[in-house]
Amino acid sequence: MESTLLSRKDQIDQTATALFRTRGFAATSMRELASALGMEAGSIYSHIRSKEEILHRICFRLAEDFFSGFEEAAADEILPAATRLRRAVESHVRVLTADVAASAVFLHEWRHLSEPARTEFLALRERYEAGFRQLIGEGAASGELYAPDPIFAALTLLASLNWLPSWYRPGGPLAPIDIAHRLANQLLFGLEVRGNQK
Amino acid sequence: MESTLLSRKDQIDQTATALFRTRGFAATSMRELASALGMEAGSIYSHIRSKEEILHRICFRLAEDFFSGFEEAAADEILPAATRLRRAVESHVRVLTADVAASAVFLHEWRHLSEPARTEFLALRERYEAGFRQLIGEGAASGELYAPDPIFAALTLLASLNWLPSWYRPGGPLAPIDIAHRLANQLLFGLEVRGNQK
DNA sequence: CCTACCGATCGGTAGG
DNA sequence: CCTACCGATCGGTAGG
């Protein structure tokens, strides 16, 4: 019945992720989590230190996934900026779709982190967004992309991508890579220079 | 000192909106809310029936604002679909910027509504999104817009718009109407048919 | 609008 | 991993 592939701690993280996503961190009680795991509330604490520790692990694991994906996609500076941007978009979608529940928690529940974790998290996110701004700015400077306001463009681009966990369902008609391509196309057709564009 | 323009009930709603936005509905206690209003927790209940009633009012008021704005923008069927879509986008941005705190609550805290309000709310949101899909679909059918997948396009468009409360600050360098135009342009340049587009 | 309070539930711990 | 429990806090009410 139960998957024995996951350690008890990983089971806790995974079950908590699903609950945090659907009910929110604050509204999820340790009793609920325990019940979903088939154990008593007190027993969870032999595997974790606190409720917030679970949230911390989810948020920072995702941050790491986004970062390493971006590095791989955008590091090769020989490639044109537009190509690197497209690869970065695809990486972002890949991370999102690989674990939509964790992604939703990452996107919405981080504010329940207490200091200093919260500030640290926001700094990471800011650095990540700066990577996208940088790529768009480079593309605009080289004339590959049409982006009169790279800050604005980066904001809109990431916004479109980050809405994905609210509608994507694994096993739907579109595979993650298809979604990535469609999103990249839809977003970049609005950025890429074409003949009659000013 | 205090604004006497607002009824006590409206003050409660407004203060609650700000708290629900920054701390989340579940994590905001009635004691916190009372304290922010300069009163005791029990006293709030002479103006409202329950904590959830406040959330309900915020969410459904915004839904109404979005709907009436959309009607006004998109009802005139003589206008081309692309024009109506642009007007609908501008209306959406106007509602968002008119009260970013309430918009953020509308976008993220509705899931704390209990049934049947929750289902009712989701039905309203679905109908609203369908209006955008409809416009995009019409524009695609008439050849005004390039949108091979109107569902996908509508999702991405609203996603980009709905990220606004997370970065918009009233009194910034861009006026709401400027933001509306920029967003509409950035999004529609990716949709509008141009010469060399397939 | 306050004081005083209700039962319920919270995150977390001790001791086994 | 459970039982039994801690102090704190929750949303909400009664009575004035």
Overall description:
2 copies of one chain form a homodimer. By secondary structure, chain A is mostly helical. Helix content of chain A is 66%, strand content 0%. The first copy, chain A, is built from 9 helices and no strands. In chain A, helix 4 runs parallel beside helix 7 and helix 5 runs antiparallel to helix 9. In chain A, 36% of the residues are buried. At the A-B interface, helix 8 and helix 9 of A face helix 8 and helix 9 of B. The first copy, chain A, binds a DNA duplex (16 and 16 nucleotides) through helix 3.
Short description:
2 copies of one chain form a homodimer. Chain A is an all-alpha fold and 198 residues long.
Largest interface: A-B, 32 and 32 residues
Q: Give, in order, the helices and strands of chain A.
A: HHHHHHHHH
Tell me which CATH architecture of the largest domain in chain A applies here. Answer: Orthogonal Bundle
**Given the helix and strand composition of chain A, which structural class is it?**
mainly alpha
Radius of gyration of chain A (Å): 19 Å
Give the proportion of residues in helices of chain A: 55-70%
Task: Give the amount of beta strand of chain A, in percent.
Answer: under 5%
Instruction: Give the mean pLDDT of chain A.
Output: 91
Low-pLDDT segments of chain A: none
Strand tally of chain A, please? 0
Q: Total helix count of chain A?
A: 9
What is the global morphology of chain A?
A: elongated
